[in-house]
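User: Predict the structure for this protein chain, please.
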Amino acid sequence: MTTTSDPMPDGTAPAALYERSGHVAVIRLNRPQALNAVNAALSTAVGEALERAATDPEVRVVVVTGNGRAFCAGADLKELAAGRSVAAPEHPEWGFAGLVRHWIDKPLVAAVNGFAMGGGTEIALACDLVVAAEDARMGLPEVRRGLIAAAGGVVRLQRQIPLKRALQMALTGDAVDVRQAAEWGLVNVVARPGAALEEALALAERIAANAPLSVQHTKRVMHAVAAAGSDWNPDWSRREVWAVNDEATDVVFASRDAVEGPTAFAEKRPPVWEGR
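Assistant: Here is the predicted structure, written as structure tokens:
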């Protein structure tokens, strides 16, 4: 396992920790004293960790979680009240927490523990899969504070659950328990209290066992189709979507892994993926 935990210039703990075990990287939001509320340091640390994972050929899946008793309490309101930005100063294009607009091809799995309201829910929405402990809480309370869920809440929520459910969450600001969130389709796996990371790692390992290029291009095509939104033609005739599909197919089928998979099956042995 490799771990990054170098202290900040002022001697404080880093705002996010990065570690890798095998083909799975884990990014831990690390401001537990502030319920992992997002400030500029956290956005920078998470964004840099994502870049590290994206460029490391050994990493196939990334798990995002929070240290302490919360996943993420959203933006650090003390920073906002002082007029300070919570974005990564050098990379505002990464979006909230250095993550919500930060695309990488490798799947992101959120391991939601404890409190995950507002920006915490928006981080989960930005991930591809969500594992949440049954005692966690999710929701978008921004309207209760005269704000709007601008870090992806009002953009992504209705793409992931039915519109009326999404409107109920966003317009009331009510918290949703995890089993309800799972029933609506917002959570993939409900874990026992304290076991969200354990279950997320197990899910990540199942993904990481598959061919890396196949996984990455499957993610890319599925997101492209989802992003087509209401313009998507149900008869699958839109050229743009098929073009993305065909481009991914050409890359994957021309890879060495596309030869290795059938060969390993025929030889009755586990495949040895090269990611190329």
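The longest strand covers residues 16-21.
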